[in-house]
């Protein structure tokens, strides 16, 4: 199952980040959560949206878990950490792996209490990482609402982001086809995501504003 990233629904063709924020806020406020993928190349405003979403949700006294595929990317997020650290994803990931956290552990309690999980630069991670999160959420989130068992990430609002034209997962001794298969773009769970796209280069847009309008 693969997504057509260039032909998806264009939520912000005019850099209307408010559309992304509104969609996510609606999901956070619901009992069923939601699964989103924010697709955009560099300088389209993804980091700004992560910070805005985090601030908006936390201002209501709710918990947001900000993560990224690497420590460098995580530094750009408020309270950001690597996805492996935040969600206890195994370093040596396998197809049938699960998260290395106990259902009744403090970390699992934190995940259950969160209303939003953000993961930036998701295309750099192996698809098995996200499938492990989805698989383990069935056990972790069962305390919240057993009826969410068949919903992606079991009713948690999860927003992934990144650009598939950048670095894909690193796979040892892999062919080009193997690397593509390792991408989240080849995962069945992505078929359940709502794709939100950023298409405007905010840096160029800002530089093109006439002086009298600044």
UniProtKB/TrEMBL annotation:
Keywords annotated in UniProt: ATP-binding, DNA damage, DNA recombination, DNA repair, Helicase, Hydrolase, Nucleotide-binding
Cofactor(s) needed by this chain: Mg(2+)
EC number: 5.6.2.3
Superkingdom to which the source organism belongs: Eukaryota
GO MF, one annotated term: ATP binding
Keyword Hydrolase: yes
Class in the EC hierarchy, top level: isomerase
Stored Pfam families: PIF1
A GO BP annotation: telomere maintenance
Keyword DNA repair annotated: yes
Signal peptide: none
Catalytic reactions of this protein: ATP + H2O = ADP + phosphate + H(+)
Domain DNA helicase Pif1-like DEAD-box helicase: 19-210
UniProt record similarity statement: Belongs to the helicase family.
Protein name as catalogued: ATP-dependent DNA helicase
């Amino acid at each position: 199952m693969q997504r057509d990233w260039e032909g998806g629904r264009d939520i912000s063709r005019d850099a209307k980040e408010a559309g992304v924020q509104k969609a996510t806020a609606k999901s956070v406020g619901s009992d069923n959560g939601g699964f989103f993928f924010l697709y955009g190349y560099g300088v389209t405003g993804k980091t700004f949206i992560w910070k805005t979403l985090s601030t908006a949700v936390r201002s209501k006294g709710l918990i947001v878990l900000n993560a990224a595929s690497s420590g460098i990317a995580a530094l750009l997020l408020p309270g950001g950490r690597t996805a492996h650290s935040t969600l206890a994803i195994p370093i040596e990931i396998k197809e049938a792996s699960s998260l290395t956290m106990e259902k009744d552990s403090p970390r699992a309690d934190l995940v259950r209490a969160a209303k939003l999980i953000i993961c930036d630069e998701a295309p750099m991670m192996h698809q098995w990482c996200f499938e492990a999160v989805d698989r383990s959420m069935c056990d972790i989130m069962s305390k919240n609402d057993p009826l969410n068992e068949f919903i992606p990430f079991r009713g948690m609002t999860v927003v992934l982001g990144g650009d598939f034209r950048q670095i894909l997962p690193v796979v040892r001794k892999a062919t080009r086809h193997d690397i593509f298969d390792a991408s989240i773009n080849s995962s069945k769970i992505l078929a359940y995501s709502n794709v939100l796209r950023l298409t405007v280069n905010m840096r160029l847009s800002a530089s093109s504003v006439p002086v009298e309008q600044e």
